Amino acid sequence: MPPILSKPSSAAPAALSYITIGALLSVWSGIWYAYLRNNPSDHSVLNYICMGCLVTGLVLLGIGFTLGPIARWSRHAELPPTEVTPAAVRDDQNLTARSA
Questions:
Q1: For residue 81, with 0-12 CB atoms within 10 Å meaning exposed, 13-18 middle and 19 or more buried, which class applies?
Q2: Chain segment 26-72, per-residue pLDDT in tens
Q3: pLDDT above 60: residue 6
């Protein structure tokens, strides 16, 4: 069997990782933002870091939700065409029978 047919795409686990990391980063950045809003600090750089983490989490969520459908479509693209498969199987069987 060709290697492309025996190894599934790694896009689905990657999408799940992006979604998980993005969701956790967004939630904890939101909690940190609420804390900074209730307890203002003297350093405005903390607000920039907090907003940067929040936006990064949202971007990772977007990448994960975009990569999910791409993973689903790639599963169909990795399969061999249906009209070619029976002929290839017959040729492989004939070649095996001749060599035996």
A1: exposed
A2: 999 999 999 999 998 888 899 999 999 999 999 999 999 998 887 77
A3: no
